[in-house]
Amino acid sequence: MQRLLYEKAVELGVIVKLNTRVASIRQSEAGGPEVVCKDDTIISGDLVVGADGLWSRCRESLLKATDHPLPTGDLAYRITLTLDQIKDEDLRKFVSEPTLHFWIGPGAHAVGYSMKSGTMYNLVVGDDLPPEVSRRPGSTEEMRVLFDGWDPLLTRMLGCVETVDKWKLMHRAELPSWTNSAKNFVLIGDSCHPMLPYLAQGANSSIEDGAVLGKVLSYVKTRQQLPKAVELFEKLRKSRGEKVARETFHQRHDFHMEDGPEQEERDKIFASQLGKNEPEVKFPSRWNCPEVQPWLYGYDADKEVEAAMKEWPISS
Ligand SMILES: Cc1cc2nc3c(=O)[nH]c(=O)nc-3n(C[C@H](O)[C@H](O)[C@H](O)COP(=O)(O)OP(=O)(O)OC[C@H]3O[C@@H](n4cnc5c(N)ncnc54)[C@H](O)[C@@H]3O)c2cc1C
């Protein structure tokens, strides 16, 4: 996916400069945006798109203030298992099925799906990393203890794991705006709407941002139309990006419930839908909830922009 995006960008004439850290974004005296790099080079253009992720410098430039990511209190164990690491025949059959599996329980959940003829598992538990650490090797033993007593299939699978990475899951407060007042500098992706990875939407919604921005810009014919296009991009994307991010926290709530009346109610809903092809009621897992799934996973960036252009044409 990354290579495809890269190759397409180069084909379209994009110049990629690696190993070039951005220090800040500023406005030139003439009024255009400028990227100031750590090596003191300055790149100017009509529009700057800050897509520098969770630890964004661009965000700090937009806010004109220091602004660090905030811990969510969760961390993810990220594991990749290949079939040859698994000797147990039942497990081999289970992990090679092209099916998404969830295990949920108090304070944690695990998700597993097959890819590249192997299997990847993200296992999520309460945060116990020091504040300054974002990622480091985790202990497989510590992870096994956390899931002790869960589904034997899961614990047998964890028995096959040799190494595991721990990721601290961070988030950010919602911004008043993703753009500057001149509408020539815009943030996209994790720099403005990071989220928990519980709906597999972080990279996806970042790509949606890129698709919408690209499509909106394709309508721009003059420099004067650019601010309106940037405004339209923000109008289309900010509410959705932030809604998706909030939904990941709702998903955490519903997956990680401690034992008690609320958890019992949730489990009754799960049980009531067993054996049905699709859940027919509001469902605790948004992955196939009939209320959330359609807007979350059914988004079409092209259609969104085409409809918006009819309502708010940027040429008017
Ligand atoms: C455990 C885990 C599991 C996840 N699972 C999924 C999933 O299943 N599906 C999904 O869609 N998402 C998932 N995500 C989220 C996804 O990884 C992010 O949302 C996505 O990478 C954000 O894309 P981005 O382009 O905004 O930022 P990033 O991917 O972080 O890219 C930012 C880029 O900017 C560069 N950069 C940063 N600062 C500077 C600077 N000062 N100068 C120059 N360059 C700079 C970085 O080197 C990087 O290349 C997961 C995340 C985690 C932690």
From TrEMBL:
<keyword id="KW-0274">FAD</keyword>
<protein>
    <recommendedName>
        <fullName>FAD-binding domain-containing protein</fullName>
    </recommendedName>
</protein>
<feature type="domain" description="FAD-binding">
    <location>
        <begin position="2"/>
        <end position="247"/>
    </location>
</feature>
<comment type="similarity">
    <text>Belongs to the paxM FAD-dependent monooxygenase family.</text>
</comment>
<keyword id="KW-0560">Oxidoreductase</keyword>
<dbReference type="InterPro" id="IPR050493">
    <property type="entry name" value="FAD-dep_Monooxygenase_BioMet"/>
</dbReference>
<dbReference type="GO" id="GO:0071949">
    <property type="term" value="F:FAD binding"/>
</dbReference>
<dbReference type="InterPro" id="IPR036188">
    <property type="entry name" value="FAD/NAD-bd_sf"/>
</dbReference>
<keyword id="KW-0285">Flavoprotein</keyword>
<dbReference type="InterPro" id="IPR002938">
    <property type="entry name" value="FAD-bd"/>
</dbReference>
<keyword id="KW-0503">Monooxygenase</keyword>
<dbReference type="GO" id="GO:0004497">
    <property type="term" value="F:monooxygenase activity"/>
</dbReference>
<dbReference type="Pfam" id="PF01494">
    <property type="entry name" value="FAD_binding_3"/>
</dbReference>
